[in-house]
Structures
1.
Amino acid sequence: MTQEKLLDLLEQVRDSTVSPEEAAKQLAAFENLGYARVDHHRAERQGTAEVIFGEGKTVDQIENIVKCMMNRGAGNILITRLSKEKETQLRGKFPYRYSDAACLMTANPMEQTLVGSVAVVSAGTSDLAVCEEAAQTAETLGSRVERIYDAGVAGLHRLLAELDTLTKARCIIAVAGMEGALPSVVGGLVSCPVIAVPTSVGYGANLGGLAALLAMLNSCASGVSVVNIDNGFGAGFLANRINRMKGVDET
Amino acid sequence: MTQEKLLDLLEQVRDSTVSPEEAAKQLAAFENLGYARVDHHRAERQGTAEVIFGEGKTVDQIENIVKCMMNRGAGNILITRLSKEKETQLRGKFPYRYSDAACLMTANPMEQTLVGSVAVVSAGTSDLAVCEEAAQTAETLGSRVERIYDAGVAGLHRLLAELDTLTKARCIIAVAGMEGALPSVVGGLVSCPVIAVPTSVGYGANLGGLAALLAMLNSCASGVSVVNIDNGFGAGFLANRINRMKGVDET
Amino acid sequence: MTQEKLLDLLEQVRDSTVSPEEAAKQLAAFENLGYARVDHHRAERQGTAEVIFGEGKTVDQIENIVKCMMNRGAGNILITRLSKEKETQLRGKFPYRYSDAACLMTANPMEQTLVGSVAVVSAGTSDLAVCEEAAQTAETLGSRVERIYDAGVAGLHRLLAELDTLTKARCIIAVAGMEGALPSVVGGLVSCPVIAVPTSVGYGANLGGLAALLAMLNSCASGVSVVNIDNGFGAGFLANRINRMKGVDET
Amino acid sequence: MTQEKLLDLLEQVRDSTVSPEEAAKQLAAFENLGYARVDHHRAERQGTAEVIFGEGKTVDQIENIVKCMMNRGAGNILITRLSKEKETQLRGKFPYRYSDAACLMTANPMEQTLVGSVAVVSAGTSDLAVCEEAAQTAETLGSRVERIYDAGVAGLHRLLAELDTLTKARCIIAVAGMEGALPSVVGGLVSCPVIAVPTSVGYGANLGGLAALLAMLNSCASGVSVVNIDNGFGAGFLANRINRMKGVDET
Amino acid sequence: MTQEKLLDLLEQVRDSTVSPEEAAKQLAAFENLGYARVDHHRAERQGTAEVIFGEGKTVDQIENIVKCMMNRGAGNILITRLSKEKETQLRGKFPYRYSDAACLMTANPMEQTLVGSVAVVSAGTSDLAVCEEAAQTAETLGSRVERIYDAGVAGLHRLLAELDTLTKARCIIAVAGMEGALPSVVGGLVSCPVIAVPTSVGYGANLGGLAALLAMLNSCASGVSVVNIDNGFGAGFLANRINRMKGVDET
Amino acid sequence: MTQEKLLDLLEQVRDSTVSPEEAAKQLAAFENLGYARVDHHRAERQGTAEVIFGEGKTVDQIENIVKCMMNRGAGNILITRLSKEKETQLRGKFPYRYSDAACLMTANPMEQTLVGSVAVVSAGTSDLAVCEEAAQTAETLGSRVERIYDAGVAGLHRLLAELDTLTKARCIIAVAGMEGALPSVVGGLVSCPVIAVPTSVGYGANLGGLAALLAMLNSCASGVSVVNIDNGFGAGFLANRINRMKGVDET
Amino acid sequence: MTQEKLLDLLEQVRDSTVSPEEAAKQLAAFENLGYARVDHHRAERQGTAEVIFGEGKTVDQIENIVKCMMNRGAGNILITRLSKEKETQLRGKFPYRYSDAACLMTANPMEQTLVGSVAVVSAGTSDLAVCEEAAQTAETLGSRVERIYDAGVAGLHRLLAELDTLTKARCIIAVAGMEGALPSVVGGLVSCPVIAVPTSVGYGANLGGLAALLAMLNSCASGVSVVNIDNGFGAGFLANRINRMKGVDET
Amino acid sequence: MTQEKLLDLLEQVRDSTVSPEEAAKQLAAFENLGYARVDHHRAERQGTAEVIFGEGKTVDQIENIVKCMMNRGAGNILITRLSKEKETQLRGKFPYRYSDAACLMTANPMEQTLVGSVAVVSAGTSDLAVCEEAAQTAETLGSRVERIYDAGVAGLHRLLAELDTLTKARCIIAVAGMEGALPSVVGGLVSCPVIAVPTSVGYGANLGGLAALLAMLNSCASGVSVVNIDNGFGAGFLANRINRMKGVDET
């Protein structure tokens, strides 16, 4: 709730158009399921409905949260890190779309017009799951996505061949495990924001993705920022936000 | 150099308008000072001139790199992490602006029209240096900046009072040391991209800023990405890039 | 054994009311089962019976320890981190209460009058198991508990709506994984002791809960202390101790 | 501001006793000095005035913050981690008390009636500075403090000799560097809350205090919680809060 | 593609022998399978065909990549970290050789003349899998290999007895887990390059191989360099490269 | 082989009593099984036969190594970290004794006269496996062992009651997980060498035993040294060596 | 105080030979200087007087502790990690011996008959300070010491040439920085206890001595235990204790 | 000493040409200065004289070691990590060459014919010191060196412009701090061995060079191995060894 809306509300209270109890209720606009407080304000506050982190929630909890949101009209509800096993148990409970590759469910899916351009570029084939989580998140939220997979720095020409696509993107998601060098190289070639996603692909001194994470945080290229290891969702969400920005001159 | 320009160049070579030697030279458009290769293409490739990392470079090296860039017409050349001591030795060598608080020099400073809105919000007074590095970087590159300092989560009302400024920003830089909670709280309140900057402020288990860094990478709020510890420059650079984006409909 | 009791005992030895051998035995008031030394003094010394760490003990060991304690009259014996599988094998051996959600058994359960108020507030639904371990521990030891779950900082209004409950609590347990920001925000709102419990909920750079742990240790809010990752029991135990304190004026 | 006060305020707005603008101002009750937002609500919200973290602030900033608080009537304002050098520069600016041992300043000192009992027990002589920061913080806030220094576990009888003082305390602060074993041993002897403070005393594999911190977090004794390395202030603040609690029966 | 070949290509473009489109295609000489970009240039650029990292790829992906490479005439295609289970599923799809011990497949195997001498020396029997990955990689690429297994430093005479073989080798791969001391001892005895391979063999403070890795990086012997934990492939690849070098006088 | 024996050997070579080839063979007195070099010299060099690390070796390898050693007359051959499953497969291959609790096998067991006194003291019941590995190793090698289990520092009187046994021991093995405080407390009470064994018992911030390890390395008590996490074997081996020492006056 | 002495004391109390107050005093046999509790029992309990950790204590504190101990007749009082600067200020306060190389002071030095044999062997010249701290500690406590410096594993013959001295020692202290391989090699050659001391010598991935520490903890040689990084004192103390042991047959 | 020479020696002993005492002396061919054992065999064993690690040695120790080596005819003696201050004190003691940039001294410098080609390529200007240590080490040992500095991946064309030099090198040293991506990119372009040197250049999450180190260990390019952080010497030494190899066909 913006400051402006807050002042409006207070004025309505003063004018007795709204009772104090009603005002207090509006400030607390979420539903309490006991184990979860469903945040109905989020779309208004942040432009998209609440996203459900599927890991560590039971199938029943997920079903109830989704239905609670659908009752308030929410669509394209993202559920991340949802195992194939849970997906099977949710069949028939509500309409959805599910991606095996990304372990990503979209409950109550709706048509979207895709706009702009987000490029998802990856270092290797094994990064696919994270890439797809990123790409499908951005698409579900309304962005057009270009996929450039397996274009790691050990074979630079594979990357350079896609320079055209890269330079036309409004935002680039660069996904890499192992040494995580890809975002630095991409960052040196383009002039749009680059979101670096380290993955846990690798072994030994990759430390479960920490090596790639640290490399990306220390990128010598400007315009690069980083999200958590394997956090394709976070990258896709942010990329969509950047991609769909209005022009500075329009403001 | 974009793919398009590359094809142009190749066609000019075919038509003998440009010689192969000249083409090769254009592909290598930097100047070699021995200890540094000044990248004259960067502005074209990335929209801004090369930025000089002041730490670990001698005063002579800095002077030569700056002059080399000025000879090619560059202005508003940023030199980061430049100590007061080195600044003193550079007096009179070339025109510049210097900020003690941010250890940031702008060589050959030029007038800029500031556009859009970047908000820099910090958790505490001790984060000031990093905040100013971020704010002044964004300003030098052409963004209008709002400063909201010392608004950490232990006194939430201080932050909530600035909700209006926050929700109007096109990009927010959230700077915090210690537990690094600020970006998560800010991220939950706004709908623009949030760049989180961990600082080394704190002691003991802050591990020189790692605690804040890890917290920010694990942010439960969507739309948040992270840069290196104390990397105000990186945040300011990226925020400017996001702030100055053209609208998706204009593309 | 307090210094006072020690002096009493020594005086009884001097007066030959108690033999030196008997005195030595009283100083060693525990039972040795070979693999375990059951501490019968603990209730006297610390106000509650010994608590059994269920992990890494066999079902036989647990049964014997519990019975040994029950023989000395102990009730409400807590067994933490007890798997469902072990619980099944213990059926019929002795009376107990078991919580699947918390993996917590109370052997020889007894009625308690619940007093005061401990609030357990969590950041997300996935923190439920740790929360219940904390809440049920405090309840078993005699504290009244308020549960406020899924009130993380990415949707602040969910937390602020419970401000009334929070400010009335005598002690608050704040449970969070990921970035662990909740205790700092809660700590800034209340004037009672806050016990922060980091959880291992999250992935990647959460480092199995270390990110949340570090964040909580660096909390910028005063009045916050921290227990081990996922240590709901420890938080519940301490919260009960604080909640049940006598007033400073009564001393 | 409690929920109760908030409802009051809203009702006053409705009854036109308070204007919406005034209500908004009350919600934002802090003073903005640019580099700092002085939190005038904190005493009301949390029972004590804001505490100033001296490290990383300039002498001018500290002076202004203190005066800003004194103007609103605050007394016993704590400034932690304030170097001797800065203290010297602050002479004559405002009344204060300063402890060299603890690097702790109390601006605008006021008389306090000390109540209850907090025991500060340390493992070694080298932990003195942290102990004094804890002890003096608790005293400044109104608690009576008992000091038991250099009573580490390598000479248990030194600790056991103070058992009487320990068992009479309402809260114990256990301070130790190196292996950090003291809080576990103390925790096994008493029935009041124990706050463990790891210190950076030691070398090599002490990892700047991390070894002691980890040990304390893994304490096998119940009733122990932990604060940041060398955070004597945090321990003293929390101990005072616990020590001064009203009785559960009074509530 | 070397600079020389690049100039040739540009000259051919100028002379219209090659069209600009064709030139662009040659610069991008790889095949895009969507999830993988097969790098046909690598043999030319680096002397050996692309190596496939088997972990994290599906059986279908592997089959397609291999066939795509075989279509361009590649032989002795290495697939590392390929589980027995995947190998079973690949039977009959294309000709190959598979080593259970090394989890290493050689697709489209071809006869090789083995030259020079690479010695693989290991500290213990449990390092066998890594050793064989190294040894067989080097053999597949054309090097003669001597195996000296279980010759750790706790029984020095076992190593010293092989001094003759060691001093005759052109490159030595020293494989060790636990404390990783072997490469330092070997490095002190010979005058050829030594490649150290830390393994994850051990437990507790071996930290999954980090202890050995750190030891090897700090080797007091000169002429030692290190590859990733358990990276037998990397060591075998590099050893073959060194072993097969032409003489400095031949250049 | 001692320097003395070496000189003898050289003199025998000079006198042609021993041929150079035979001398070289004696210097290399081990058997090469390909995957293992069985060290027949070790008993002579170090007083006990080679010990076999069971983890990571196949059942066949273990059988062959044991038989190879038995052929040379070795008895009481220790095989550590041998799973129950492998033990089952080894039945009937050679005579042995096996402990489930310690996962320890003694092949070709022989009668021993137990001498001196080694005390194994543990903090908790869950440390049992490590304790038994230590105790049985020492017993197999000829030391009399006293077991004092579950005597952690949270109930000091349990430990103090065994002071008599502790002060009579010639060497003490102190085993603890979690905060690892036991060796420091024991070290402060006795005058014999104390070997500290950290265990991986615990969770969260115990970091798989690192917390206990670090604590023990930083012990404020003198006379304490440390072995690897869960390394009961190493502690038992060393304790036996110390326990069986001849007197300094006998030398 | 042993159990035996305790019983004696209790019996004396019963017979009224000793008053309860006197008994309590004897149990608390230390002197409280406020900042330090001087442990007069330690020599009796552990065979040597308390050792003073010089770092972090003021010159006044050290002087007072030493004098307090001398008043009770203590001699050869060790003060470790005492800087040259503090030593200068202590001149004339009490008799002492000081080693610049080891930063080690022996207050009230007394003649000792040196017995047995402790060998101190180091990897490199830069480990000298730690070696001397170890060697002089052992000498001060009564052990004869052999020094074998700069005999690291990169030049094995330097170590093998001292095999005679090594095999005659009753206890060996092996000191090494960098990769810390020395103790493993030494441990494989001898049959006496080996105390490994990691040093902080090195740079980069030596992590201030952690690399050597980890290596030593993972030593594949049996009979090796480890003390803290740079802890020459601890090694010397323990070596003396082992060296001076009575024979197992004498017990 | 090779096995062959050893047999020779033994035969000479048998034939009484060499006495056993003389043989023992030859096996121990080093000079003992007390604090250092100068290894005169090293040149024979490893092709180059012993290298002196200057850090942590006194000026006197260095002088004596150098003179001791010069007495045996050694030339081009490298002393690494020698501060300017120590160099000043060594003036006139013996002939030498000193590089300020590399903190590297060559005592008793001799003429060398430089052969082959080692390329040293660096990511940034701040890596200069490490680069020069590498380059000058290789030159002193006899290799011709090409320097390509400040060619980091954020401006790829700077690197690609030197492709010709890179592909002609027999061994490449790739030096980088920050994200350490350079060796992966270089490794993908060439077919000679690449030695990666991480530097401590950077700040925050570079963790003193660990970020670059980890990245390089995880390099997705084959043919890359790694040395310690800032270890220019180690890289230069190894590169020279590889560069000067004889051809495999000559063996």
2.
Amino acid sequence: MSFQKLDDLCRRLEALEHALAILGADEATHMAVGGGEKRAEAMAALSGMYHRHATAPEIADWIEAAETEALNEDQTAALREFRRHHTNLTCLPADFVERQTAARLRCEQLWRGLRARNDWTSFQPALEGVVTLVREEAAMRADVLGLSPYDALMEQYDPGNRAADITPVFAELKAFLKDFAPQALEVQAGRLAKRPLKPLSGSYSIEKQQALGLAMMEAVGFDLTRGSLSVSHHPFCGGVPSDVRITTRYRTTEFLSALMGILHETGHALYEQNLPQDWSHWPLGKARGMAIHESQSLFVEKQIGRNPAFWRWALPVVDTHLDENWSLDDIQPHVHHVARGLIRVDADEVTYPLHVILRYELEQELVAGRLEVADLPEAWDAHMRDYLGLSTIDNPADGPMQDVHWPGGAFGYFPSYTLGAMMAAQQWAALVRDHPDTDEAIAKGDFSTANEWRRDRIWSQGSRWSTPALMERATGEKLDASHFIAHLQKRYGG
Amino acid sequence: MSFQKLDDLCRRLEALEHALAILGADEATHMAVGGGEKRAEAMAALSGMYHRHATAPEIADWIEAAETEALNEDQTAALREFRRHHTNLTCLPADFVERQTAARLRCEQLWRGLRARNDWTSFQPALEGVVTLVREEAAMRADVLGLSPYDALMEQYDPGNRAADITPVFAELKAFLKDFAPQALEVQAGRLAKRPLKPLSGSYSIEKQQALGLAMMEAVGFDLTRGSLSVSHHPFCGGVPSDVRITTRYRTTEFLSALMGILHETGHALYEQNLPQDWSHWPLGKARGMAIHESQSLFVEKQIGRNPAFWRWALPVVDTHLDENWSLDDIQPHVHHVARGLIRVDADEVTYPLHVILRYELEQELVAGRLEVADLPEAWDAHMRDYLGLSTIDNPADGPMQDVHWPGGAFGYFPSYTLGAMMAAQQWAALVRDHPDTDEAIAKGDFSTANEWRRDRIWSQGSRWSTPALMERATGEKLDASHFIAHLQKRYGG
Ligand SMILES: [Zn+2]
Ligand SMILES: [Zn+2]
């Protein structure tokens, strides 16, 4: 039976994914510094094995044969997702993938050095090479998938997301934020004039912050028997659903950034830990995509973790672990701090979407060939001045050289961040509509209803639905900017 | 070119070995408890891939063709070791290996429960099943390798080791130890009567013991950029040569057992870290075998780490880290403590070989069919009474149910422990012959000459020579019990 052959193949692929995921997490946390070269060799070889197993020529026949077999509902869904996965994996010729991998690696390596030196001129040709190949890639994917080139790129990260649906939603959000961001800054200035900021500075040992982090993780639903918290230079959520590795980094002079980072990664982790275990080897059993994944991290970090109700419960926990005595009025200005800046990853939830929409707009132009890499610094500067009133024209390192995504060839990924923020707000609104007492429960440290709601509607669904369908089924409506806008107005509108 | 095909294959196998080694070490140190089931699945699948890759039918042709190609000296040696590795891996039919794996797993699982209940009667049939299969295995290996059945088993662990060479050496050692062990105990009793033992008890935090352990590891030559120290239930040396993972376990009431454990595993680690890096993917680049590996751990633990000269340097280091104030006369009775006991892993260097020789003798009888499993408790008891004056007849849990080796099907492994101890003494004697000032250097914390000597003669040689040839080249003579006997007489003879 052909479905059985695919099922067996999926188990072999799961073993290789398991190895790659644990080796990857280990590299950032426990590996000896001198082990990197051999680790890279091993992971490249294992990735090659994964690719060879997953693209063996007989698989296309198995899929076709399995589609004629008597399958139950889960198997039918598994087969559909397997086909999607297989199509995305095989639609580029092997020699193209090799050329592209080499160009990306070289551009990423160059980027690391040249960004530090603010050297756009030396970087431009490498990025041009990557963009040329991305245009080719988009054309090939578009051809196979019957989508527009940019949609075909997004499809890898968020199946079903289409620019035609996203652009009007982003336009509404952008129009709102261009006025609202300065307004939120004014409201903040007024508040701080009345009540000066209590500095976060103090002395907090890593051990105590870690114990606080673990207590918070467990309270919001992280299963500590199937995951752990470590330290790494860049926080991440990795590992496998049965052993989710989240990391953070600590400063010993303040506790809030590590804690909010832990809450963010815990949101990702809850999704992974609660995926359907019986499907874990199938593409169907994996998290749906990048936007949904980010909606889960932002649900915990922003909707729960920056909610004043949460801090009514959390402040005593912080005080117990860190021997502090913060009031809600002292901590809230830090938790809701807004600032206009050049750097996306440092941005708050009010200004972050403007950074993303800028990239979404520019990368569509780049992929379509309506914008050339040479013109990127000026285009970036023009958008930044328009959206945030800041110029990057003399500072490409904090302009189009800011992110690893483009040098790494990841075009179509950026919208996921802001889609995730909007989806989190829309999920929160739907949850509160169903359970008006959510704030009170959270203020008591009771996250069960919020978690059950997401378990039923998001986590347990794996990859059964496209990204927009999953959202619509979970919240009862299509993606709508109004929920995120209302959320920002309530929290930052004064 | 066929050699190139084998070389490429070795790189793929190295990647799978890397994954299995790191996943194995991770399981014992950093894995979440709930991650075990998926980890076991992943490792079983990766082991299966390793086996399929390493035994693909075309490989035999590649080896034969490569043997006609123009190869340099290293390649010729690599090919020879590759053939040996391939022969050992392929000489058993796949269905036999499956049956054997199942029988071993079941017997090991039973053993864990039944040993705790001292239940020999329920254990006996499972061990009989394993022994029946080991006899079959030995016959098949003997046939392919042209060796006697027991030698064919030892060949997997220590290529070149033969019972005909080992038995007379063990006989000499046994004859010596049967008299010497009681004598050493008497000498010890006399000393303790004159100077009572200062108890080791105290309060030592894990952090401080770990810092001490790391300082000792580094001092004796461990490269901390290519390895690390963690905690696990059973101490081990794992990982890969570029990232050696050693572990220990701590008691907070005394520091000596963890420290000696760290020195032992550091000895294993030095061997791994100093293997020829360019050959790392070839069988030729691996450590030679179990006896040589144990000789390296015992060289550091026993020859260096229990040497009074070492403690002249080490005591101030201990005092610095643990805020202690031990004198050499206080610590030495602990470092050189001798005791007659039933348990091999708890034995000191005087009595340990008697535990091993007992097993070596009995397992040869078992493999040859001259002894049946049903008669094992009486045979064990008779040997224990003869060698150490202790009876196990009412206590099979501490008799033939003591070790995991036999339930796990590892017959031919036990001699490695005592061969390692003898080889370490012989290496030490050769080192001191070449460098009579070794004790003085070590008393100053200078391990460079001792390490250079082993790097040249053992570590850098990988698997270039058989176990006996490697020893003879390194020390200038065949394995000879006299060095180990002289070592024990000097240290424990009074
Ligand atoms: Zn995230
Ligand atoms: Zn050992």
